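thought: fold this chain, then report.
action: predict
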Amino acid sequence: MGRRKLSHRLGPFLARALGPPLVRLLGATWRVRYDPPDMRERARTGSAVYAFWHGRLLMPTALFTDYGMTVMISRHADGEIIARIAERLGSRTVRGSTTRGGAAALLAMVEVLRAGGGGIFTPDGPRGPREVAQSGAVFAASRAGVPLIPVGAAARGAWELRSWDRFRIPRPFTRVAMVLGEPLHPPPGLEGDDLEAFRVRFEEGMRAANGRAERLAAGEEA
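observation:
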C-alpha cells in the first residue's frame, strides 16, 4: 500500500480515536462565559437551526457535546475528519456542501428539523469566503418552519491556522465566550430576491453575535 493511500486511511481513523478525547480535555480547561447564562439549557429544547462560522467551530464542538444535534458537514477530506469527531462527541451528521451533494443534504436537514431535531450549519463553509454567509441555513430554516439562530464564539487567546477560515484553537485555560444571537424567523418558501435579502440579514446577525463574543472574551463588556 502506498504511503499516500495509507495516510488517507489512517488520518480519519486517528482523528476518530484521538480527536474527541483531546477536544473534550481542551474544552474542560477553558473559562467559559455563556450569554445568556442558560444558553446550554436553551439549546436542548425545541427545533432550530444554529449557525457558527467555520473557523470558530472548535469551541461549540468542545462545549456542546452529547446534544444529539445534526451537523451539516462537507464531503471534502477535512469534512471527513470533522464528521468523525462530531459523531464521537454525540452529534449526527449529514454530508454535503455548495459544491458536492448540497441539495440532497439540505433536504435531509429539513426533514431532521421538521421531525423536531436541532440542526447546525457553518454558513461560510466549506471553502469560504471567510465569515460570509451562504443561503443554505436560511433555506433550511424557511422550509422547515423553525428559528434561525446566529451563535457567536470567541477566545481571548487562540492559535490561528493558516487556512482559508483562519481556524482558531483556543489555548488551554483561556477565556472563551459563547453568545446566543437574536433568533430570526425566515418566512416559509423564501426564494430569489427575498432569500438573498434574508441572507444579508442573517449575516448581519452572525457578525453581531460574534462581535459580542469577541468583546466578552476580551473582558471589554460585562
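thought: worth noting. Helices lie at 3-29, 39-43, 58-63, 77-88, 102-114, 136-144, 192-217.
final: C-alpha cells above.
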